[in-house]
């Protein structure tokens, strides 16, 4: 059973609905409703005091009856509800939807004849209105499926309806769908073709017919897709022809563009949207164009459109997020930051949003801003250890070692009681780095050893990185040389050909006093580097140190100079290089 709609109530009568509803609520609690005329008395009173003419009085009566009918139907008193639905139709015959619902109830409780008579009365009361006729045709087609006379009458009414209202798109589309529902596809096609031959200048007419045409010629049928697309396109092309130039016609052109997108005519959609953007700068057209460029893999064009969308609509949270994601894909972290910040400020954000923002600030090396953000997020999400980790990493980057260590300790404590999965091998590796740089090598070693123990077997790269780092740290400290060698050799065994691990192996030989073997490994590490980066200065420095031990001071001096020219970023490495050059002079 279809539920009657309330959309036909005019806004200025809202007071009537509210008043009727309140009065009815009181009466339902006081005593059961039968066929009381409470709402009629209310309507009469309102009509006398607030509504000045008879027509408005009838509307008030219809509304009051409708409120009563709704309450009764919800209470399961269907026959009593029917009385008031009938009263709605008698008070205001223009309400075709209410009439159809009343007819459905009448059919159930009083029989077919009374239901048909009710709908016929609305047709007679509104002879110039096509909606009551449509309601009657719909009822006859639905409930007269086994009655040839009723079916025949429905067809006659439908034919007459299209003749009387040939330029009503609602009538034409209704007729098409009715024919299809009765398996009369040829009649549906005939109705559409006749409508298509008319000279109608309203683009909305052609859009409505285009939507109906998609039911007649389904575009999902692969074998008929080309022919069906050609036939349906005619209606949308006519809509474009009739669309006004400039912004007034934008809604029509956008509807056609959406049709092209939904039917996979992407090039046509792109051309149409590009023209729209060029002429009027239409924002919705830009959004479609952005999606089309995305689908084509045209990332630069998509980004340009998205930037213009955000510029035109800075408060659009969704577009802000999309732009932030686009910059992240390009690894332009700093550009992504303000857009994600704006999205959170405008639309709010959860812990995941703040985590993403913190990660962006970290990748952008905006450490002071990250520390400021963590000050807020730790207050907002006090039990979330991630924000303490962010704080620790920012403090580490600013070489505030004590604060970084304290933040990691807080993160570990929180994680172990609530999010133990965060205290994994990567966490302990980062904790070890901070402790080592903070001057606590023994504690750092324990963290690295935990990291090695917790590293899953399939995370070979992570395991090798930790083993190499711990082994190299011990070499630099001059302790546990044998254990250091075991770790470094294991890393080389698992991932052979890694210049960093080979450099550590060479440096282990150096620390053991085997300078000739050290030089072989160090030069092998250097040979594997296709281009030298500032961080590779340490390998050159190691070679230079080894050549000093082997007595080749000129080669050592040259290697120190090459290392210095790379501009090493680690101040400890740079200091050793400068010291080596000074001693050779």
| Number of helical stretches of at least 4 residues | 31
Structural class: mainly alpha
CATH class value of the domain at 1-165: Mainly Alpha
Say how many strands there are: 0
Please state the second-level CATH architecture of the domain at 1-165: Alpha Horseshoe
Extract low-pLDDT stretches.
1-52
What is the terminal separation in angstroms? 99 Å
The radius of gyration computed from the alpha-carbon positions, rounded to a whole number of angstroms, is 40 Å
Would you give the CATH topology of the domain at 1-165?
A: Serine Threonine Protein Phosphatase 5, Tetratricopeptide repeat
Q: Report mean pLDDT, rounded to a whole number.
A: 88
Q: Mind describing the biggest β-sheet?
A: none
Dominant shape: elongated
Helix content: over 70%
């Amino acid at each position: 059973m279809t539920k009657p709609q309330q959309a036909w109530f005019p806004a200025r009568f809202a007071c009537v609905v509210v008043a009727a509803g309140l009065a009815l609520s009181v009466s339902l609690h006081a005593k059961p409703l039968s066929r009381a005329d409470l709402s009629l008395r209310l309507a009469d009173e309102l009509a006398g005091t607030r509504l000045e003419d008879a027509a408005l009085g009838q509307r008030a009566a219809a509304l009051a009856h409708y409120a009563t009918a709704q309450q009764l139907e919800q209470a399961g008193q269907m026959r009593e509800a029917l009385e008031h639905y009938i009263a709605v139709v008698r008070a205001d015959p223009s309400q075709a939807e209410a009439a159809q619902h009343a007819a459905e109830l009448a059919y159930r409780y009083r029989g077919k004849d009374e239901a048909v008579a009710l709908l016929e009365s609305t047709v007679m009361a509104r002879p110039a209105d096509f909606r009551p006729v449509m309601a009657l045709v719909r009822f006859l087609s639905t409930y007269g499926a086994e009655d040839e006379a009723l079916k025949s009458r429905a067809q006659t009414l439908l034919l007459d309806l299209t003749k009387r209202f040939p330029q009503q798109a609602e009538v034409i589309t209704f007729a098409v769908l009715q024919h299809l529902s009765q398996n009369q596809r040829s009649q549906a096609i005939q109705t559409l073709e006749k409508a298509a031959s008319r000279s109608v200048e309203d683009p909305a007419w052609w859009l409505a017919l285009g939507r109906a045409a998609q039911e007649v010629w389904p575009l999902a049928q692969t074998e008929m897709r080309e022919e069906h697309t050609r036939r349906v396109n005619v209606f949308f092309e006519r809509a474009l022809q009739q669309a006004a130039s400039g912004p007034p016609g934008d809604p029509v052109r956008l509807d056609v563009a959406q049709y092209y997108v939904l039917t996979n005519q992407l090039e046509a959609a792109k051309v149409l949207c590009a023209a729209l953007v060029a002429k009027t700068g239409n924002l919705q057209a830009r959004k479609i164009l952005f999606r089309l460029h995305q689908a084509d893999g045209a990332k630069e064009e998509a980004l340009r459109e998205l930037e213009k969308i955000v510029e035109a609509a800075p408060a659009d949270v969704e577009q802000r997020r999309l732009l932030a994601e686009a910059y992240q894909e390009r690894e332009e972290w700093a550009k992504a930051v303000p857009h994600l910040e704006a999205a959170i400020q405008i639309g709010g954000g959860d812990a995941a949003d703040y985590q993403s923002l913190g990660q962006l600030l970290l990748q952008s090396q905006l450490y002071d801003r990250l520390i400021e953000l963590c000050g807020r997020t730790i207050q907002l999400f006090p039990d979330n250890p991630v924000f303490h980790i962010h704080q620790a990493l920012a403090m580490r980057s600013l070489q505030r070692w004590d604060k970084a260590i304290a933040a990691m300790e807080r993160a570990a404590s929180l994680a172990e009681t609530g999010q133990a999965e965060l205290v994994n091998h990567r966490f302990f590796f980062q904790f070890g780095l901070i402790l080592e740089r903070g001057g606590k090598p023994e504690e750092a070693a324990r963290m690295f050893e935990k990291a090695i123990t917790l590293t899953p077997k399939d995370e070979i790269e992570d395991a090798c990185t930790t083993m190499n780092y711990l082994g190299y740290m011990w070499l630099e400290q001059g302790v546990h040389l044998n254990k250091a060698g075991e770790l470094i050799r294991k890393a080389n065994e698992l991932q052979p050909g890694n210049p960093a691990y080979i450099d550590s192996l060479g440096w282990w030989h150096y620390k053991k006093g085997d300078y000739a073997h050290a030089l072989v490994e160090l030069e092998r590490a250097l040979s594997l580097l296709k281009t030298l980066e500032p961080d590779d200065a340490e390998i050159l420095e190691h070679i230079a140190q080894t050549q000093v031990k082997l007595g080749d001071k000129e080669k050592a001096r040259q290697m120190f100079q090459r290392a210095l020219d790379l501009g090493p970023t680690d101040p400890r490495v740079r200091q050793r290089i400068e010291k080596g050059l000074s001693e050779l002079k």
